Amino acid sequence: MDTTHDTIEILNDLISINNDRINGYEKALKDTKSNNADLKPLFTHMIDESRTLRNALGKEVQGLGGEMGKGTTASGRLFRAWMDVKAVFTGHDRQSVLSNCEAGEDAAQRAYLDALQDDHLPAYLREMLAQQQSTLRSERDRIHSLRSRA
């Protein structure tokens, strides 16, 4: 298989994961009640961060001659559907919202780990993806810490 095509596919998968993150945090932002208003700036930051990561990935896709993906992953759509179902039973309490966000962050970590395990990924992209994964890991740890204190 063509290495450039594989690389574009990997990058578009990560674009989809970041789109999932954007959609997930937009949902969390919408579902956040006034007693958890302190989470709104965090969720807004996460949305902005994913847009920045997604755009950097898209620039690389275009540089390789590909077209930047615009959708979300199937698992992302399922994850958001599960958040909707779960919300019926939990009422969007702080613990549930943060737990769902943490699960989404875990999915993003797995996606980046899978991408970094590709042997044909050019070194400059491997470095970029490792940096993005590190950024997302810090954010995942932040969410985890908030959930643990909830």
Automatic annotation (TrEMBL):
Family matches, as Pfam families: DUF2383
InterPro entries, per database record: CHP02284, DUF2383, Ferritin-like, Ferritin-like_SF, UCP029477
Annotated ranges, domain DUF2383: 6-117
Top-rank lineage group of the source organism: Bacteria
Record protein name field: Aldehyde dehydrogenase
Species the sequence originates in: Chitinophaga flava
